[in-house]
Amino acid sequence: MEMNYFAAIEAVLFASGTPVEITRLAEGLGLAPAAMREQLLAYGEQLDRDDRGIRLLFLDDLVQLAAKREYDPQIIAVTDLRHNAPLSGAAMEVLAIIAYNQPVTKGFIEQVRGVESGNVVNNLVEKELIEEYERLMVPGRPLTYRTTANFLRAFGLASLADLPPLPGDLIGEQPQPESAPDDDIEN
Questions:
Q1: Does the pTM of the predicted model rise above 0.85?
Q2: What residue ranges define each of the domains in the chain, with the CATH number in brackets?
Q3: Can you spell out the DSSP letters for 66-87?
């Protein structure tokens, strides 16, 4: 009996409820990654053609079932989305700083904004829009932050490459993101 890949993809993505690595999906369905991508693209086209309420959302090397944006008003009317309350201006500002400069420390964010930003960063971590990434190899070993797949999904982006370009007058105004000092510097 031949497998119905579209049905299998839909079942796995529906049951998961979260983004799934395309390579893992390919392994689970016994396909090569390239063949899995072809199946996903064809399935996504079928969802659009059949005028369904769901779509495939690609997030770099992840894929997820998602509601089509045109049904947002109905979804909001029926479900309790208060936990997804709109982000404040400060939160949007911090997200933009992180998205365009990641990974960055709280110190970098505060340098760009000119105000203490710890609470905003913590709230964005709670909402899973950003995550702790790694510690820099500098004195104090500060944590760096980067955006998550939830950030991409919330803003309808497939990858960070889809971010709109910064306005020309903002390019070059911000400090450069921190990086660890070169290990090959001689004393």
A1: no
A2: 5-74 (1.10.10.10), 86-155 (1.10.10.10)
A3: EE-GGGHHHHHHHS--GGGPPP
